[in-house]
């Protein structure tokens, strides 16, 4: 896995639509109490599909050192 | 704290946006921002023009010169901006109702002129802002609050309409296929002439609920299963393509002169450039 | 170098005045009796580095002109009644977004298609109230070819200074009249340009600077980025539902005109000091009234005078009241206009019965003649 990348959630902007969780290829995400949560960080391959499909910009991949 | 892209391209203090949970517009707006970034445009020379409706609220969130106009008139305003100052990169964000119903006349004539605008239609198949009335892209037979017995109108195919009217670049993308959408919008911006891109959005709140399409996830899954890239489609049989929607670059003409270029030549010819 | 004195139509003089004022963008749609304005703009604008575009419809015409104005060019569109109706929504947009623009309406007779080639002044009230909601507007009405030139310059100056839509309310009489016109070069004219602040800090595009009463945001591409919207907006240009902000913004829009009437109002007084009967008229009607005044002098008739608002909105009411107060001979006012009594309503409101007010109107597509004015004076004297 790419260790210099981190999955970040901004819960304030999350509207709980569930798109990120549904289409995550590794089941890393889950909607809990209407907000997204990282439930399996180990499995995350930092593909960024969640970021691309989040309508609310509430989840993204951050490159460390940037 | 938003991502680098959002921080750079959006007015972060205006976010979160007003769109419903699961609305495809947020995805498409990000695609537009990413495409502008990928093109390396100077943000100070980018103008986003929008009309009225859910789609058109995008302008207010995007950190460029933004012009939120009247219903249907975005392309006409944009024509004035572009002709007045051709060095500006003018991008129109509009909706299915805004662009093809009340603004349909401006759309076809801008296509015909081949003026260098990039028009992105966020198509959610419904009038969302007013609560779910059928639009020119609501499929035949589907429901809206003003089509309680089913829509008897036949719907537009927006890229086909634009191509027939003379647009020199047309394409379609979906909210689901974000990577392809970014590439397509990028190509549309780079195209020197009129580009029309239909961005298939999802409206779970009105269109989805009224027509039992399920939530946003189900509607995006439908896009995933039914959108076929135009290149792949070339190798498929008509039977295989039944009920599918084509995405990607649908048409392109590169040898038609652009409108503002032609006008600048007139100015030069009659001596107005001195 | 163009000849300084030329024989021109009112419509042509309007374009020459606009170009002298700095118009560099025209967008419109052909409509009788204003079409010559589009034609001359198409010919002349590229000669001065400006742009002309014939749009697909009337709404597109004003929309493109507004877009060009936001991009920094002085812009104009022209039309007649049916097109004026179609443009109304975007006149309101110009008012709330504070985008300078000049809209020419060469009036023709009747509602709907009416009588396309006949004179009228039936759009007077529409020019003030045409678009929905309370909004500021300045309306200027010329009554000679020369005024089509000079007053069009003033229309642009007002639009730029106050960042409002200015209606240049012509009529078919003046639009198609040919007269000698002096094309006064720009360097001999007073030309106003919108004040621009290129670095307003991005967040306060609609803030009003000390010593000004309108925002000073720069054209797109030439200063800080900002948002333009037809929604009620805060000083930062972004939509708001806040009632206090709505109230203060709406009042500022209205007050920027209301509080500065002295700089906007303009009128002509002709023999108003000692006349017994004063004719109030505007635009093309003044031609017949002038004729009647001359005829009356030769006839040993009632002493006539004329009061002619040139800025018709806001109506120069203080000037009218002053005449009524100062002229002890004044017995009668007649409002003469080519409509069913539109300026009449305004005059009655202002005069409040101090002097009897009568009316001479025509709505058949023909013009009022000097002899008809004389007859009316006889009838009511």
CATH fold group of chain A: Alpha-Beta Plaits
Largest interface: B-C, 43 and 42 residues
Q: Return residue spans of chain A where pLDDT drops below 50 for at least 5 consecutive residues.
A: none
How helix-rich are the residues of chain B, as a percent range?
25-40%
Helix share bin of chain A = 10-25%
Point out poorly predicted stretches of chain B: none
Main sheet properties of chain A: 2 strands, antiparallel
How many domain modules of chain B? 1
From the spread of the alpha carbons, the general shape of chain B counts as globular
Number of H- or I-type helical stretches of chain A: 2
Query: How many structural domains in the coordinates of chain A?
Result: 1
State the CATH class of chain B.
Alpha Beta
Structural class of the helices, strands and pairings of chain B? Answer: alpha/beta
Can you give the mean pLDDT of chain B? 97
Q: What structural class do helix, strand and pairing data of chain A support?
A: alpha+beta
What fraction of the residues of chain B are assigned to beta strands by DSSP? 15-25%
Label the CATH architecture of chain B. 3-Layer(aba) Sandwich
What is the CATH homologous superfamily assignment of chain B? Thiamin diphosphate (ThDP)-binding fold, Pyr/PP domains
Placed side by side, the strands forming the largest sheet of chain B appear as 2-1-3-4-6-5-8-7
Give the topology, please.
The complex is a heterotrimer of chains A (66), B (274) and C (381).
Chain A: E1 5-9, H1 19-23, E2 29-32, E3 35-38, H2 49-53, E4 59-63
Antiparallel strand pairs in A: 1-4, 2-3
Chain B: H1 4-9, H2 25-39, E1 46-50, H3 58-61, E2 65-68, H4 74-84, E3 89-95, H5 96-100, H6 104-113, E4 117-123, H7 158-165, E5 169-174, H8 178-190, E6 195-200, H9 204-210, H10 216-226, E7 227-229, H11 230-233, H12 238-241, E8 245-252, H13 259-269
Parallel strand pairs in B: 1-2, 1-3, 3-4, 4-6, 5-6, 7-8
Antiparallel strand pairs in B: 5-8
Chain C: E1 5-9, H1 10-21, E2 23-28, H2 35-44, E3 51-54, H3 58-70, E4 74-79, H4 81-97, E5 101-109, E6 115-119, H5 124-129, E7 138-140, H6 145-162, E8 165-171, H7 172-176, E9 178-182, E10 227-229, H8 243-258, H9 261-264, E11 267-270, E12 277-280, H10 285-298, E13 304-309, E14 311-313, H11 317-326, E15 332-337, H12 343-351, E16 357-361, H13 370-380
Helix pairs in contact in C: 1-2, 1-6, 3-4, 10-13
């Amino acid at each position: 896995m790419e260790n210099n990348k981190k999955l970040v959630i901004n819960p304030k902007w999350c509207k709980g639509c569930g798109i990120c969780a549904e289409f995550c290829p590794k089941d890393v995400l889950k909607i809990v109490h209407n907000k997204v949560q990282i439930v399996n960080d180990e499995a995350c391959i930092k593909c960024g599909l969640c970021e691309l499909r989040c309508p609310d910009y509430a989840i993204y991949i951050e490159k460390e050192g940037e | 704290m938003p991502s680098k892209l959002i921080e750079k391209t959006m007015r972060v203090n205006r976010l979160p946006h007003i769109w419903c949970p699961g609305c495809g517009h947020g995805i498409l707006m990000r695609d537009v921002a990413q495409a502008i970034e990928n093109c390396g445009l100077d943000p100070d020379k980018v103008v986003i023009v929008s009309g009225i409706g859910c789609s058109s609220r995008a302008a207010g969130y995007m950190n460029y010169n933004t012009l939120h106009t009247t219903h249907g008139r975005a392309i006409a305003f944009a024509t004035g901006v572009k002709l007045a100052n051709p060095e500006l990169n003018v991008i129109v964000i509009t909706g299915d109702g805004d662009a093809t119903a009340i603004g349909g006349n401006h759309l076809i004539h801008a296509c015909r002129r081949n003026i260098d605008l990039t028009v992105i239609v966020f198509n959610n198949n419904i009038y969302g802002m007013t609560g779910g009335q059928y639009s020119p892209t609501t499929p035949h037979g589907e429901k809206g609050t003003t089509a309680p017995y089913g829509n008897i109108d036949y719907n537009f195919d927006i890229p086909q309409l634009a191509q027939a009217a003379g647009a020199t670049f047309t394409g379609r993308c979906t909210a689901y296929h974000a990577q392809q959408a970014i590439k397509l919008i990028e190509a549309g911006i780079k195209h020197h002439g009129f580009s029309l891109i239909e961005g298939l959005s999802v409206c779970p709140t009105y269109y989805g609920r009224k027509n039992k399409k399920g939530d946003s996830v189900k509607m995006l899954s439908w896009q995933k299963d039914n959108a076929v890239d135009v290149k792949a489609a070339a190798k498929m049989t008509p039977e295989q393509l039944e009920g599918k929607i084509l995405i990607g670059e649908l048409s392109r003409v590169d040898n038609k002169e652009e409108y503002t270029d032609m006008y600048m030549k007139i100015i030069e010819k009659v001596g107005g450039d001195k | 170098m163009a000849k300084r004195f030329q024989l021109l139509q009112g419509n042509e003089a309007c374009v020459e005045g606009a170009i002298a004022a700095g118009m560099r963008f025209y967008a419109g749609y052909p409509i009788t009796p204003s079409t010559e304005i589009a034609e001359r703009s198409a010919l002349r604008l590229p000669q001065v580095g400006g742009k002309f575009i014939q749009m697909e419809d009337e709404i597109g015409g004003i929309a493109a002109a507004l877009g060009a104005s936001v991009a920094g060019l002085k812009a104009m569109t022209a039309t007649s009644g049916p097109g004026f109706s179609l443009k109304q929504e975007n006149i309101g947009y110009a008012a709330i977004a504070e985008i300078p623009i000049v809209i020419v309406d060469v009036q023709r007779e009747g509602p709907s298609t009416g009588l396309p080639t006949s004179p009228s002044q039936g759009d007077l009230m529409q020019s003030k109230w045409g678009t929905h909601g309370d909004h500021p507007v300045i309306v200027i009405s010329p009554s000679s070819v020369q005024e089509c030139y000079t007053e069009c310059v003033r229309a642009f100056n007002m639009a730029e200074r106050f960042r409002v839509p200015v209606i240049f309310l012509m009529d078919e009489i003046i639009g198609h009249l040919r007269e000698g016109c002096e094309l006064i070069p720009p360097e001999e004219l007073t030309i106003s340009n919108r004040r621009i602040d290129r670095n307003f800090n991005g967040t306060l595009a609609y803030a009003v600077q000390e010593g000004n009463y309108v925002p000073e945001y720069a054209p797109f591409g030439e200063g800080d980025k900002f948002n333009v919207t037809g929604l009620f907006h805060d000083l930062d240009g972004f939509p708001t539902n806040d009632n206090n902000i709505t109230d203060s913004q709406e009042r500022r829009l209205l007050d920027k005109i209301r509080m500065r009437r002295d700089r906007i109002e303009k009128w002509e007084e002709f023999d108003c000091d000692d006349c017994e009967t004063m004719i109030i008229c505007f635009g093309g009607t003044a031609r017949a009234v002038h004729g009647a005044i001359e005829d009356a002098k030769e006839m040993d008739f009632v002493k006539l005078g004329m009061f002619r608002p040139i800025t018709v909105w806001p109506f120069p009411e203080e000037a009218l009241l002053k005449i009524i107060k100062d002229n002890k001979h004044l017995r009668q006012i007649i409002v003469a206009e080519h409509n069913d009594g539109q300026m009449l309503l305004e005059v009655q409101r202002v005069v409040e019965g101090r002097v009897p007010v009568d009316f001479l109107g025509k709505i058949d597509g023909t013009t009022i003649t000097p002899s008809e004015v004389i007859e009316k004076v006889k009838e009511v004297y």
